[in-house]
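Repro:
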Amino acid sequence: MPSEWLPRSRRNGCPDRAGVRNTAAGWLAQAKGVVSSTAANASMFTAIASVIGQLVSDTTSLDTAQAAAKNRGHDEVQARNAKWAILKKSYRAACMAVQGLCDAASDEAQARAIAAAAGLQVRDEPTRNKPDFAGKALGNGAVRITVKVPVKKGARCFYEWRMSTDGGKTWVLLPGTNKCTTLVQGLTPTTLVELSFRYTSDDVISAWSNGVPVQVL
């Protein structure tokens, strides 16, 4: 069930289901939190008042049905589940309505304030910085070398690879490939090797890259 606000960009967001029990009680608790928060900050949500009003109604209905289902009676549980399904729809609609307000916010600070006022936490997307060129020790004396394709999509590219075991003083050429990755095998475990590459595209040869050190396993 949605419990956080995960930004699509640096200031906008969408609901996330992490960390909340997917049970009627879990949904009810989260809905109550949003109902309480939006009521306390009603002036910020006048544009989506009808959507919030529906959530309030469905939250009250589920709360009543949940209390009746505590005795685990068959009919009561079925009735509770029906109210739960209705609440899911109105809760998601409320989240998307708040999403719209966040998308229309003038800046990141305002968008975050809107989300918080609705009782939704902000969880930033993790930064993923994949290196342009990297080597990974795989064990058993093998190392995988990978480079981010340095040319436009669809352009042909040939890669040359080289390796040094003395800190870049001398280099040994490795077999070239038409792919942006290659596997080096038969290396001595615990050895520190340095790897480098260059590429050829449209008959133009690049300079050799800086070396990347890898501890062989």
